Model the fold of this input.
Amino acid sequence: MLELKNVTKEFSSNKAVEDLSFKVEKGKIFGLIGRNGAGKSTTFRMILNIIEPTNGEILYNNKKINQEVLDKFGYLPEEGSLIPSYTVLELCEYYGALKLMDIGEIREKLVKWLQKFNIEEYLNKKVKDLSKGNRQKIQFIVSNLHNPEFLILDEPFSGLDPISVEELKKCIVELKKEGKTIIFSSHRMDHVEELCDNIVILEKGKTVIKGDLKNIRDTYEINGKTGNSLNDIFIHAVGESEVSQ
Done:
């Protein structure tokens, strides 16, 4: 279980995240939602120890997150972290070695993932020669290659065509069935609504809404009515947004 307790992150006089608290239970999919600049990526970077909170505490299974814990995490960053001059195989061998995987295991798992996405022919293709959507698939494979128990996916569907989105959603559901814990951000409320058990909606670093998604939909009123879509709830809670259905 991941737990954030009253986490705040300040940059100079700006509070990117303010007094943020939530839990991500084992085997659940959690949605961190907000428009650009709401504090989502900053939150992910604090969870990963890339930056430190100004105040508050972040725990995984009741322990502070250190390198041993981070080895159990997989991370797909919004901006990508692929090396353009590497082939897909070279890239995965590099990142797999960082997770202390042996070459045989890396290649075996990589081939299985490429087959899952029907892109086996990209094994020896350079990253720079891939489309944006296929680079995103490779980024997802890299984040899962070492079989992490906890996944952080920052805008995982970015750049994907509708068929590829469905393939990735299917993979995420399968990972949940395997007992993986997943937290992800997305500008697509329909994806969040379809996949997530619990959510937090952020606006300018502050929590606007959080809790069980079904309960939120059943109880949140707009013009006296409940049962609204998450997109409508989001817009009502934070105002006009870039979020789309």
Residues 40 and 65 are 18 Å apart (CA to CA). Confidence is low (pLDDT under 50) at residues 241-245. The chain is about 35% helix and 25% strand.
